[in-house]
Amino acid sequence: MKKEFWLERWERSEIGFHQEEVNPYLRRFWPELKVARGGEVFVPLCGKSEDMVWLRRQGSFVLGVELSPIAVKDFFREQGKSPEHVSGGNFDSFIADGICLSCGDFFDLRRRDMAKVGAVYDRASLVALPPEMRERYARHQVDILPSGTQILLVTFDYPQAEMQGPPFAVSGAEVDALYGKYAGIRLLAQEDVLAQNPRFRQRGVTRMQESIFLLTLR
Predict the structure, then answer these.
(1) Which of 130, 133, 90, 134 is CA-nearest to residue 113?
(2) Angstrom distance (rounded) from CA 191 to CA 212
(3) What pTM does this model have?
(4) In the predicted model, is pLDDT for residue 18 greater than 70?
(5) Where in the sequence is the domain holding 195, given as residue range(s)?
(6) Domain containing residue 55: CATH number
(7) Which residues contact 39 (CB under 8 A, 6 or more apart)?
């Protein structure tokens, strides 16, 4: 999957993955991470998610990375903020009220960019990537994040042959295969969510589970 795919989705406003409300799993399970007030939270492939506003309200500094400048611009416009623009290296960063969105490629992030991160919220990042990219994604996370970082990970699992992603199906076994060597993994919840997702039923999906994991990097 090339960068152009996501850039074109934002250009055409084909953003069915965007949620207008704060994710209920985030509200429910974020306390499990016990993030210190003022700590830095990383949101990969963040789009213009309202979840970042909620995380900021919990007292965290939020660092998001997003490929599309449209998403970054829309986020601050919809929040009524005029961000400071800082350009440097591979990213253009926009900062306002404790939220920094860096516009660029996730794979260009380096350890120095993540030095203060203590937690990660991944609702729509891993599942947005096809199988051939997920191992690279997970390994890059492990390489750049500090030891001890906690990751709240939300995944979908469904018969992949029934629907072309994204979002792609990611099983619990794959989470273990991607992260098991590098992190402790705890399954917090697993729920049948097909009934709440009519758009997936319309696309022919017969089974869909959502799983929430807490990963702690070693």
Answers:
(1) 90
(2) 9
(3) 0.94
(4) no
(5) 3-14+22-217
(6) 3.40.50.150
(7) 60, 61, 118, 119
In angstroms, the CA 214 to CA 97 distance is 28
Which tokens hold the place of 186? Answer: 């705890």
Q: pLDDT, tens digit, for every residue of 129-141?
A: 999 999 999 999 9
Residue 171 has pLDDT above 90, yes or no: yes
Q: Tokens for 200?
A: 């997936």
DSSP letter (8 states) at residue 83: P
Instruction: Tell me the per-residue pLDDT of 67-120, one tens digit each, with 9 for 90 and over.
Output: 999 999 999 999 999 999 998 788 999 999 999 999 999 999 999 999 999 999
Domain count across the chain: 1
Q: 191-201 burial string, b = 16+ CB within 10 Å, else e?
A: eeeeeeeeebe
Backbone angles phi, psi at 12, to 5 degrees: -95, 5
